Amino acid sequence: MAAAFVGTIALGTGVGVWASDGGGGKPDASAPRSSAGRVSGADPAGADPGAAGTPSASPTPSRSYPLSQAPRTIPAVRSHAPARGPGWQPRHGERVVVSDAGLADEGRLIAGELGLTYAGQKGEDDVRAGDVRLALGGGGGNQESYTLTVRGGRVGISGPGEAGVFYGTRTLKQEVHGGGTAPEGVVRDQPAKPDRGFMLDIARKPFSETWIEDRIRELGDLKFNELGLHFSDDQAFRIESSTHPEIVSPDRLSKAQVKRIVDLAAGRHITVVPEIDSPGHLGAVIAAHPDLTLRNASGVPTKGAVDISKDASARIVDDLLNEYAVLFPGGRWHLGGDEYQALTVKDPQASYPQLAAAARQAHGSGGTVADLATDWLNDRYATVRAHDKTVRAWNDGFFRGTSVQPEQGLQVAYWTGKEIGARQPAEYLGAGRKVLNYNDEFLYYVLGQPQTFVYPTGQRIYEQWNPRVLRGTTAVPARYDAQILGGSFAVWCDIAGAQTESQVAAGIRMPLRATVQKLWDPGTPALSWPDFRKLADRLG
User: Fold this and answer.
1) Are both 185 and 200 inside the same structural domain?
2) Which residues is 391 bridged to in the sheet?
3) Is residue 376 in a domain?
4) If pLDDT is split at 50, 70 and 90, which confidence band does 63 have?
5) Is the domain of 209 the same as that of 131?
6) Beta-carbon count within 10 A of 342 CB
7) What values do phi and psi take at 253, rounded to 5?
8) What per-residue confidence (pLDDT) applies to 401?
9) How many angstroms separate the CA atoms of 47 and 156, rounded?
10) N or C: which end of the chain has fewer CB within 10 A?
């Protein structure tokens, strides 16, 4: 093989010029080299390609080739069985074919990215040199798992679900982009955590449709599968509404724009998770409906808080939840529930007598404002569950010592341990709840760095964080690992003008890569941080 491969292959927006880095390389009669990274199995002859339509063994790779090295990707593949052979390089005129019509979108995407021809659905007997074949089947029950086989001058990518096959194409794209050659052998890969997210606050700072779509492409290539959109807060309500147009801010996304965002995300197996935060953080709604404002015993309005003793408050929020459940068809929803100011005072019952009266009416003489807030959360849960969605809320929306308990199906988005009456994550886990990791110590990128926040670094996430580190820097016991569904890196725009869109994109670049590495494989990474950063620069 030539030592250097020069291509005119479009990868994202760039044109690649790459050098081989050990995936193929020149024939070498020397002793086999060990593979880099995590490797399971080293018998290329006996490796199961795991895919229908796996490339044939002809021409048989010569033993004069060194054993291939594991591909260098972000996140790192979890298993690679090395083999001897030249590997695979994309060449003009070669094909991407699919064995299943449902993989057409994945096939067209990778063909365009690698400068190949998408040839559509082809039978197993239609085989050509250089083919990339995508197929459904094989593997276990994890729909995000995949097998990628490079053998005999062809590539086979298979998995039990379309998402897994898509992730296999992301690995292939990175292999080619990072080194010019996809190394000979078999990759078997799957994520450790099912929820791998990025959350964006568009309420405080309006981000353009183009910027959001660029992030979706970036997230897809990194194997994230969630984009959270926090689009309602005290500052603004950022998406067009037909039920309550009076609450919508001038600088907002239209529903047509949101649909394009949702469709682009779906094509990359990313679920858009909307958040309409309540009963706090509703300032934009209250501005149009001042009669719903929560007022204390002295008549002073409480910032951002809606009066949950009023039926009209529930009606307007449910109107919005029902409206946007159609616009966001994915199966996940975020209710918010955090920082309700009525519960941050010393004596909520005395400070907010109307809430205390409503609580006693609902739950007897012992009813509290916290009971009433839990009722609110449960009622909003029921509204969203009617649309067949899995629902989460911030941990400080769950209260200790209430006569009313939050619905058991409500997942905990754990972000802080700073609230009044803060509880350790193990308290939620010990109660059997499923938890998502939004640890503000590592995963909160807060514009302007207000209060005690500092911009997180990729190095700190890479070296010190994993999904069990839910609060501060201490991991919860390993016995809770299965209840931790994953996590999310979050951008909050408290001081909206502190950074431009381009500055945010640059600032979160390495933290995103470090986060997904630890969500895909929580163990100690094979690469040092300097090497990981160099790899990220090479992959683009």
Assistant:
1) no
2) 333
3) yes
4) low
5) no
6) 24
7) -90, 140
8) 87
9) 13
10) C
Residue 493 confidence (pLDDT) above 50: yes
- Flag whether 103 is in a domain: yes
Indicate the pLDDT class of residue 435, thresholds 50, 70 and 90.
Answer: very high
CA-closest candidate to residue 219, choices 239, 199, 191: 199
Same structural domain, 222 and 141: no
Q: What CATH number is associated with residue 111? A: 3.30.379.10
State yes or no: pLDDT of 9 exceeds 70.
no
Look at the chain and report how many structural domains it folds into. 2
Which of 139-153, 216-230, 326-340, 416-430 has the lowest average pLDDT?
416-430
Q: Are residues 314 and 331 in the same domain?
A: yes
Judged against a pLDDT cut of 80, whether residue 385 lies above it is answered with yes
CA atoms within 13 A on the CB side of 163: 19
Report the pLDDT value the prediction gives residue 290, as an integer from 0 to 100: 98
Q: Is the pLDDT of residue 232 over 50?
A: yes
| pLDDT score at 378 | 98
Mean pLDDT of 486-502: 98
Give whole-number Cα distances, 75 to 219, 415, 517, 538, in Å.
11, 24, 5, 14
Sequence length of the chain is: 540
**Does a structural domain hold residue 317?**
yes
Q: In DSSP terms, which residues pair with 204 in a beta bridge?
A: none
Cα separation values, 451 from 147, 368, 446, 457, Å? 46, 31, 10, 18
Same domain, 335 and 417: yes
Q: Catalogue the active-site residues.
A: 339
Point out the domain boundary residue: 134, 158, 189.
189
* Listed residue (240, 228, 230, 219) closest to 170, CA to CA: 219
Q: How far apart are CA 197 and CA 332, in angstroms?
A: 12
H/E element, 503: helix 501-520
Q: What is the pLDDT of residue 37?
A: 38
Same domain, 329 and 367: yes
- Could you give the 3-state DSSP secondary structure of residue 449? coil
**Average pLDDT for residues 489-495, to the nearest whole number?**
98
Q: Which domain holds residue 159?
A: 79-189
Examine the domain organization and report whether 201 and 132 are in the same domain.
no
Among 189, 214, 239, residue at a domain's last position: 189
Q: Which long-range contacts (CB under 8 A, 24 or more apart) does 307-314 make?
A: 307/354, 307/355, 308/279, 308/355, 308/358, 308/372, 308/373, 308/375, 308/376, 309/354, 309/355, 309/357, 309/358, 309/372, 313/279, 314/376, 314/379
Per-residue pLDDT, averaged over 276-292, amounts to: 98
Q: Is residue 505 part of a domain?
A: yes
Both 279 and 404 in one domain: the answer is yes
| CATH (domain of 429) | 3.20.20.80
The answer to whether the Cα torsion of 158, 159, 161, 163 is positive or negative is negative
